[in-house]
Amino acid sequence: MAHAGRPKRSTLADIAAQAGVSIKTVSRVIRREPVSEATRARVMQVVAAQGYRPITAPRSAAGDRSYLIGLLHLPPVSPFVAGLIMGAGKEARKEGYHLLVEACEVDDAAARTTWARQLVIQSNLDGIILTPPLSDDPAIGAMLAELAVPTCSIAPSGEQSSGPSVGIDDRRAAREVTELLLAGGHRAIAFLTGAEGRSTSMRRLAGFEDAVRHVEDARPQVMVGDYSFRSGFEAGQTLLAQKNGPTAVFASNDEMAAGVLVAAHKLGRSMPESLSVFGFDDSLIASAVWPPLSTVRQPMEEMGCTSVQLLLDGALRPPALHQAELRPHRIIAHQIIERETNGPAPTG
Amino acid sequence: MAHAGRPKRSTLADIAAQAGVSIKTVSRVIRREPVSEATRARVMQVVAAQGYRPITAPRSAAGDRSYLIGLLHLPPVSPFVAGLIMGAGKEARKEGYHLLVEACEVDDAAARTTWARQLVIQSNLDGIILTPPLSDDPAIGAMLAELAVPTCSIAPSGEQSSGPSVGIDDRRAAREVTELLLAGGHRAIAFLTGAEGRSTSMRRLAGFEDAVRHVEDARPQVMVGDYSFRSGFEAGQTLLAQKNGPTAVFASNDEMAAGVLVAAHKLGRSMPESLSVFGFDDSLIASAVWPPLSTVRQPMEEMGCTSVQLLLDGALRPPALHQAELRPHRIIAHQIIERETNGPAPTG
DNA sequence: TTGAAAGCGTTACCAA
DNA sequence: TTGGTAACGCTTTCAA
């Protein structure tokens, strides 16, 4: 007995006795199943008075759900994942669910599918939230579809076909940033891509090109990075060493942008006077570099929250309709944050 | 029926039938209760063959534990908390437990206790991991003690009396860093404290003073910060503006150290040639600034892992001994990481 | 050392 | 619209 003094919670039976109805009726009220209005009111009153909340363990023992939602990610817990955890956890709790944060420790792509499968089966997860780049793994998607486990993908690539998803409009965000730079008079603008495979980076690149395409005298330049600080640093050194180099650099994430900043420092470029830099993500790093980095913020908590809602609404709540059309992709509004690394293009 | 095709898991009954024993016996084997060696072997073989793992829901419905461990923290999910989540989650899973990550959304100190209490009762948590600064909240500690919920505190202040805890030896780590600086010839060394209330910062300060005390010609200087980038920046400006200012600055965390770095950049001080800077934590920021910051790493994953072990060993495993002496404080080895912001003191 | 039977608090099925 | 009663898969109590 580890928990001697644990206070007794009231049960369905307690409520039923006090309200003068059967256990089953109380259960129906709690589960929002059809009950006469009068009875519902009476029961709800007792429920409120007792502060009753159903316990998940027996529910899931008897029923077919575990009230567990798994959030799958690759280590480490990045600031992005951290935000998702906050938002999803809060929303899940509100709905009587628990959020399980699961890190995939295996490197091999095939092993990942096995890992995810084990997880779903062992922990009996009711729903899955797939974070990037897991959200783009076709094998995991197929496995989850086969097991018929409701899944919500965070920021998946466009090609992903199954299930609901949530993300920002990367392409549009990138276009807006580029337009902002263009409006500031910048013409020689470099774009730094992230890891080759990552679709997000590709969409950001597309947005960059959307904006640049319409400006005759624009001199866009694209460099390949890998999302690391180091790759940003190296790209920065290369770019800024050019005789007629860019006056603005737009990196696909903050880490690379921080690398560019450092390269600029080393070469004695002042920001934003002689060079503008934009990042993406608004991670902690953005405010911990000098000058504070202009960037794009993804509302991560809202994304986490929304993903739980999609899971609950689309697959867990009404056990009825499973239409193929019901694959909503919810777009969350991004936010462009202008701090101190962007300004008008240097004249002359 | 949300989960049509969910594969059937094997149950105690299945194993029992195959092994030719009763359900209860299989249960005993699983729970590591006394069973004859022969029987145990036979049962284990079937268990292994079937890949059987007990489902937590019915266990907790029938028994007195929920197999849920709560990790309580204040928002946001900092890199420190993120590391704990990784380590604790992994270890919990290994032991058949689930980790619930819970963020406290309320600001008021009194409301926090209510929040934690609700959580424990509603979710029926078997154990609690308290992260700083929650680990120093006496009201929460008292409430948890009253409810007799096993609790493990992460990096609590020394005065904390109840329950096991885990942390690094902050005082010793700070002393070692200071000694390193001293050995490099630095004499004018400034120490930047964190938030007033935080005991960790006080212990680091004590370590700083331990080292400095034994050096006759040392010229230590202590400044008060609040763990923020901004406070580090301001302290840096003040310190470096002095005519005979410090040649080394040791900040109580990385964010403040990053602030010092920026101040140094602004004032044209080169690092590490004319100024050495040390941070604490080895957060993401440490590698995303220029030059890469020398710092102290806390093995956060290991701390998370250990906290779960302490919970399981000390309170959840053997329902027997509750001796007051059983309040282990496990010290995890820290790691001093010399990157590029520390070097010998400038000569002349 | 082992087993049979009675729960745990909920949901599910079928009848009233 | 309601209410019995049988599960759910495990733990627990008590006997053998």
Q: Can you give a write-up of this model?
A:
The structure is a homodimer of 348-residue chains. With 348 residues, chain A is α/β, with parallel strands linked by helices. The first copy, chain A, is 43% helix and 14% strand. Chain A has twelve helices and twelve strands. Chain A has helices at 12-19, 23-30, 37-50, 56-62, 79-94, 109-123, 138-147, 170-183, 199-213, 229-241, 254-266, 300-316, and strands at residues 68-73, 98-103, 127-130, 151-154, 165-168, 189-193, 221-224, 248-251, 276-278, 295-297, 329-332, 335-337. In chain A, the strands form three sheets. In chain A, strands 2-1-3-4-5-11 form a six-stranded parallel β-sheet, with helices on both faces. In chain A, strands 7-6-8-9 form a four-stranded parallel β-sheet, sandwiched between helices. Chain A has a two-stranded antiparallel sheet with strand order 10-12. Chains A and B meet through helix 4, helix 5, strand 2, helix 6 and helix 11 of A and helix 4, helix 5, strand 2, helix 6 and helix 11 of B. The structure holds a DNA duplex (16 and 16 nucleotides).
Quick synopsis:
The structure is a homodimer of 348-residue chains. Chain A is α/β, with parallel strands linked by helices.
